[in-house]
Amino acid sequence: MLAFISFLTGAAQTVLKGTVKDAKNKPIALANIKVLNSSLGTATNSKGEFLLEINSKVETIVISALGFATQTVVFEGDSELTVILLEETTVLGDVVVSARKREEALVTSPISVSSLDSKTIEDTQTWDLGGLTAIVPNYLYQESGVPFQAIQSIRGIQVFSENPAVATYIDDVNQLDILANGFALTDIERIEVLRGPQGTLFGRNAMGGVINITTKQPTNTTEGFAEIGFGNLGLNRHSIALKTPLIKDRLFFGFSGLFQNRNGYWENDASLAFVPNPSLDGETVGDFRNLYGNLSLKWLASEKLAFSLNVKSQKDWSDATGFFVSQPNEEIAFENPDKIYLSRLGSHNRNIVNTALVGKYYGKNYTLSFIATYQNIVLAFEDIDFPGFFHSFVDDEIGEKLPPQEVWSQEIRINSTDADSKWQYTGGIFGFSQKAFEPSTNLAQELTDGEADFLQLPRGSNIIFRNEGLNQGFAAFGELSIAIGNGFELTGGLRYDFEEREATFNGFGDLIFLDDELIENAQEVTEKGSYSALSPKLAFSFTPNNYSNLYVSYNRGFRAGGINAQRLPEGIDQTFDPEYSNNFELGYKLNSMDNRFRLGATAFYIDWTDLQFFNLVALSTFARENVGDATSMGLELETSLIPVNGLELDASFGYNYTEYEDFVLVRQDFVSGEEIRTDISGNSLSNAPEYTLFLGAQYGTRISSELRATVRGELRSIGNYFTDIQNTLEQPSYNLVNARISFEYKNYQLIFWGQNLTDETYLAFGNADTSFGSRNVRTAAPLTFGSTLSYRF
After folding, report:
1. φ, ψ of residue 122 in degrees (nearest 5)
2. What is the mean pLDDT of residues 205-224?
3. Which stretches make up the TonB-dependent receptor-like beta-barrel domain (predicted)?
4. Distance CA 757, CA 776 (A)
């Protein structure tokens, strides 16, 4: 083993000596120096100087420092390098993305990707994924009462089940299930949003796009912060972080933590409750608490070999939860947005752990990556008034914790790193195993006396639903780019995915829980299914210089098929097939040579086929089928501008035209038993706003040599859309106005902020299907405001 490590270490070929200064020729201490697509990096000393051993005579170096715009420099064998960093209020920083699973400049990457760096995340107060709405064109976030049960829509592509259509990655860990989302965002390096299908490199559930989140990693610089924040609705948000080298140039440690809680904004009114309960009148609903921790260890075994371990854990809990609770319909909600009508106050408790172990070997012209991940999710809930009362249940106790959802995955990937070569490639294999206990089909439904009498069951009965899923899959993928010459590049890619699924479940009435005893009327059923998919990609781009890029591309995405985890009549297929989306795109990117202006423009067309939705398959029996198709087309614009020093303007706009095609709903009149067929072809896709608009303006100025003030204002405008596929439950267009003012003195910062300053009423969620008469909705948060005090070192 020691001989193998010695073989891998190798000797560096070139020593890079450099100096980093500001515009006044003063040295910048503690500036971070990083070589793209490598583990190599260092920090400047008090004189702004650094020494760095690199593996090649041509490398792309990224230089960043607090308060300065990030700059990328191509080092081509010079003996010394002098870099002048300009203040971030005078120029836009260079943007590096990993959208193609290798680090490269945003402007030359032939893919539609929105990138938020740590400064933008802080300025826009993006505390969760909901903060991306409108900042990312044609992106919408719909929350089901808690952040860990939400729907993300990009270009109208979204879902109606536990399998997401937008894949979310956090430090290389894929959140395979919707329940895995909802991590609190703090100490984030960058968020990349890849718009449109990304099946070739990211695989299953990347039909609408990918959210790729990277947390800050430790370096040779000791740094950290402590932050406390307070706001209305009883908000507390306090965080801390520390990153430091344990052994310089070899071993690094990082930690960040966050605690936040907030009271609900709904006041309970039992007058319209499912079962009136006046004792709960005036109680607050929608409280939540989060406790989050992120631990990082990084070991540079040599210039060529690096390992990193990242462990994240979050606990979410509430005794007056918004989980799955709702207001009766949109008319009542818009008239009384701060009211809710519950017979009981529910509780939830979720624990999630994400672990990623990454090993990277940096060869002469390639990087070999080994990524092993593990995810564990545990959920419990009780007294959820939906209407009706629902509790998590496993064996013998109402509200007990469900068995953990567990996901293991392994990816082995190779990437080319020779920037001078006309051939660039990415290839690899991926495998995963998932043990799933989906919360909506692992529960106890508590019956009222009237419901028990109607079903001819003893009063006090609970109908038990059980569902255990075992899923495993394998994929092989590759992408190759060829520089044809004169700035032209051709990219082709292909991915093959194979997945096996197994579900063990019971049918309605098979299990009854009464007087602390389980009554089994029928044995559980086990069903299996297997699926495969090919995801090709083809792109052609023209990059005449380092400041612009024009491309046209085709990408395919897919969402996994599955099993109807309910007892169906004989002859009815228990399984349903995958969905597919085909994306055709034309894009243009431009950076001005003085780095004061940035523009990205995209036109797209998506063909979405074999949509999965519930339909009538037998008398009084509904199951998920592949029932229809849809199209989505539109335009997207993103731009940033610094017209004068200190003033930064940001804008994004998305226009989206969507339509269901060949989509027939099959339903049943429960009185007459008659089958009803409704063709919704021509309707707009649900949760697909006609447009999204974001405008941001920020101005900073120095009050004195050590005191700086910054004022920021934002407008987020969301066009009208329907939450249901029938297009009867409408959210009209709405505007959100946000503001922020901050004062920086030495290492301290004091921020005053406000969100939704006009107290706009709008829906955070609405029913996807209103054909059964259900029109449950949830209003979003009202005006919120607060302050934050932080200290950075």
Report:
1. -70, -45
2. 92
3. 356-757
4. 26
Q: Map out the domains of the chain as residue ranges.
A: 1-87, 223-792
Contacts of 671 (CB under 8 A, 6+ apart): none
Radius of gyration of the chain (CA): 27
Between CA 132 and CA 409 the distance in angstroms is 27
Helix H or strand E encompassing 4? helix 2-9
Which of helix, strand or coil describes residue 645?
A: coil
Q: Read out DSSP for 429-446? A: EEEEEEEE--GGGSEEEE
Of all helices (H) and strands (E), which one includes residue 174?
strand 173-174
Cα angle 575-579-583, degrees, rounded to a multiple of 5: 170
User: For residue 256, which of 307, 301, 313 has the smallest C-alpha distance?
Assistant: 313
Tokens of 520: 């089994």
8 has pLDDT over 60: no
SS3 per-residue string spanning 686-713 = CCCCCEEEEEEEEEEEECCCCEEEEEEE
All residues at 6 or more sequence positions from 668 whose CB lies less than 8 Å from its CB, including other chains = 616, 619, 620, 674, 675, 676
Predicted confidence (pLDDT) per residue in 480-497, tens digit: 999 999 999 999 999 999
From CA 236, how far away is CA 177, in angstroms rounded? Answer: 29
Task: Express each pLDDT in 243-300 by its tens digit.
Answer: 999 998 899 999 999 999 999 999 999 888 888 888 999 999 999 999 999 999 999 9
Instruction: Tell me the two tokens of residue 648.
Output: 């930064």
CATH entry 3.30.160.250 includes domain 1-87: no
Q: How far apart are CA 744 and CA 733, in angstroms?
A: 37
pLDDT at 125: 94
Phi and psi, residue 2, nearest 5°: -65, -35
Fold matches, 1-87 and 223-792: no
To the nearest whole number, what is the mean pLDDT of the chain? 92
Element (H, E) at 555: strand 548-559
DSSP state of 481: E
User: What's the half-sphere exposure (Cβ side, CA atoms, 13 Å) at 33?
Assistant: 30
Q: What angle do CA 155, 158, 163 make, to 5 degrees?
A: 145
Q: Please state whether the peptide bond connecting residue 245 to the residue before it is cis, i.e. omega within 30 degrees of 0.
A: no
Amino acid at the residue 24: K
Tell the CATH topology of 223-792: Maltoporin; Chain A (2.40.170)
Indicate whether 4 pLDDT > 50: no
What is the pLDDT at residue 438? 81
Q: Where are the beta strands (DSSP E) in 278-422?
A: 284-285, 288-300, 305-318, 339-340, 347-362, 366-382, 384-385, 389-392, 405-416
Per the DSSP assignment, residues forming a β-bridge with 318 are 348
Q: Collapsing DSSP states into helix, strand and coil, what is residue 453? A: helix
CA gap 159, 136 in Å, rounded = 19
Q: In what order do the strands lie in the sheet with 339-340?
A: 284-285, 266-268, 339-340
- Rounded to whole angstroms, the Cα distance separating 167 from 172 reads 11
Phi/psi at 602 (5° precision): -140, 135
Rounded Cα gap, residues 3 and 472, in angstroms: 36
Which of 35-39, 70-74, 99-103, 338-342 has the highest mean predicted lDDT (pLDDT)?
338-342
- Residue 258: its H or E element: strand 251-262
